[in-house]
Every structure is written in C-alpha cells, then in structure tokens.
Amino acid sequence: MSVRRFVLFSAGGRRLVFPVEAVKSIRDWEEPLPIPRSKQWLLGVLEGEGEAIPVLGSSFWGGGGVADHMLLLLDLSGRLLAVAGGDPDILPLDCTWQEENDPGDGLIAGTIAVADRTAECVRVDKLYSALGLRYNNTDRIGGVDAEKDSFSR
Amino acid sequence: MREGWVFLKVSASIHIAVPVSAVRRVLHREDQDYAAYASTAADLSRELGSKPDPELPGVLVLLENGACWYVGNVLLGESVQPLRYESVPSDLFDRTPGWCRGILWGRRGRFFVVAPEILGGNR
Q1: What is the domain extent for residue A35?
Q2: Chain A residue with minimum CA distance to B46
Q3: Rounded average pLDDT over B88-115
Q4: Minimum distance, in Å, between the CA of residue A95 and any CA atom of chain B
Q5: Is A140 a domain residue?
Q6: Residue A142's pLDDT is what?
C-alpha cells in the first residue's frame, strides 16, 4: 500500500493541506511586486522563469492568523501559483480525510485531523478555477494531473 | 529587431516601460506647447490608483496612437539596465486584456510594460 504525502501550510488563519505532487517548492518570504488594477486576490507577482508568478494573498482564505512569512509554490500542469502563509510541514498520512458535502465551489475536498487539530484539504484544480487562472487541463507537466487532483476519487 | 523602451516614473511606487515605437514626443514644463496638451492628458497615477508624487517634475508623453499621458518623470534608459523581461498573464486582471503585458526586472527597478492602447482613455 502506498503512503500518500501531503504538505500542511497555514494561510489566513486556516490550516490547509495540499497534495505533495502539486507543490513545487516552499520558499522564504520575498516581497511580491503589487500590480495596480489587478484581481483582488492578487497580492503581487514574483520573478519567475519567463512568466511572472502570481501570489495569492492570505485574505483570500479569510485573513487573520500569523503574518505571512513563507511562500508555498504550487504547480498545476506547469502553471505556477505562490500561496502566502507559513508554518509548512510535510505529512506522511493515509487518506482518511473526512469528505465534505461540497458546500459550494468544491474548493475544500474535506478535512483531516493533524496533531489533534483539523486541516482542510484543498483541491488545487478548484483553487485555480476559483481564481480564474488558466492552465492546460490535458497536460501533465510536473505537478498534479490537472483533470484529477490527488483529492479526487 | 530589438525593441527599445522609454522608462517613465508614474509615481514613487509605479514605474512603467513603453516601447519607443509607441512614443511620439515627451514634453517638459518648459516646452512651449506643454500647456496646450496638459489639459487633455490622462494622469496615469490616478488611472493606476496611485497618488501623484509632488516631488516629481511632471512630464507629458504623446503617443503615436494620439493619447497623451501625464506622468511624474522620464528615466534615462542607461540608468536602469540590465533588465529581464517576463510576461504577465492576462488572467490576473478583471478586465482583459490587462493594462500590463509584462515586467522588466532589473537590479535597480521593476518596470511594468504597458499596453499603450489600454491606458489613458484609448480603450
């Protein structure tokens, strides 16, 4: 039986879990360059490799919590997205999450108990869709298979 | 052919780059026809939700497409080299196409590469 691994990351006062396949790296904080007249969730952009990397501000998750001090870099079919937050951890877990009843946008696949506290499992493809970020949903270039992320059944 | 840039300081925090080929003239306050163009100029600091910097002299940029911009100052190209270009995806803007097509990253500054047809009342 294969053991699935997940990355725990705090953002906007929430504890979030991402499938490790979707995480390209975890970086120290660097100040994003704000872009005027851009989407509300966009904290700014970072220098990338040919294309600027958008940074998702923690206010998207509701705000609160500790100040952003790290960046979680997601990769969905080659499209990069940095999530502002902190306190990362890598967890080897079996898949015993509590599935949600899909309260709306389906962004949260369910919850999982980590060290006696609950964390929310983020569907990476739904996150990109909620932000309006385009990606090639037929490719599988590193990162997660865009058509079926690791929390899909 | 490699495109050259005109670098403009819109406000203290916003610097932009426009292709040389899109710019017809840059007018300074001491230029004779400055006042004639000033009344019709679009203030880019306001367009981009920033505050004009009163410390800056204020120049007008006349574009080939007929638009006229008011910005804080013009920067000399040689003072901002070297630069690396990166595109900015249009899906980062509510209105598409977005006003910014890319960013020139340099050790001495970051410059938004502007789509001249988007800013300044030429939408």
Answers
A1: 4-131
A2: A36
A3: 90
A4: 34
A5: no
A6: 43
Task: Choose between B2 and A122: higher pLDDT.
Answer: A122
**CB count in 10 Å sphere of residue B85:** 15
- B46 shares contact with chain A (CB less than 8 Å): no
Instruction: Indicate whether A94 pLDDT > 70.
Output: no
Interchain CB contact of B115 with A (< 8 Å): no
Q: Which helix (H) or strand (E) holds B38?
A: helix B34-38
CB pairs under 8 A between A and B: 53
CA nearest to A39 within chain B: B93
Of A36, A42, A52, the CB nearest to B86: A52
Closest residue in chain A to residue B104, using alpha carbons only = A47
Which of B97 and B93 is assigned the larger pLDDT?
B93
Go through B8-44 and write b for each residue having 16 or more CB atoms within 10 A of its CB, e for each that does not: bbbbeebbbbbeeebbeebbeeeeeeeeebeeebbbb
In a domain, A49, yes or no: yes
Cβ pair A92, A5 in contact under 8 A: yes
Q: B109 in contact with A at a CB cutoff of 8 Å?
A: no
- B38-80 per-position pLDDT tens digit: 999 999 999 898 888 888 899 999 999 999 999 999 986 556 6
Q: At A39, which CATH number?
A: 2.40.50.180
